[in-house]
Amino acid sequence: MITDMFAADAVRLRALNDDGLPHPSTHGLRSIAARDVDPVSLAVLEVLLTDVAVEEAVAEAVRTPAQEAPDLYAGPVLTFVNAGLVRALPAVDDAALEILATDWIANGELAGAQHAAVVDWLTAARSLFRDAAAKDRLICVWNCL
Fold this sequence. Notes:
46% helix, 14% strand, alpha+beta, Hypothetical protein yfbM fold
């Protein structure tokens, strides 16, 4: 599954949706590749960073603008990154990010992932989340096979 993460306001999301959900870059939206980081993986990351229950994190991670229970394999489908994760990740410093990457890989959702690649991805996501918060944008995941 291809999963790319991007930030957008409501107007840009509506335009993307009206256009049939093409890749966000076709609308000039900066995205970060999130291959193998599916909604459940993001929910696990949120659980590692916050006190949210796993069930709640997973239920929120598959939330879409249009569907209650989307078929992520019939994409493209947009899902949202949980607000708790968007708030928590930017507060993680570089040293703690290294530990977080180790813990996230150990949870099984990212089994076999290279530690350095996970740290790089977390660093990019942290930057995207900070930028989105400053501009009052939502963090979305474009899911497509």
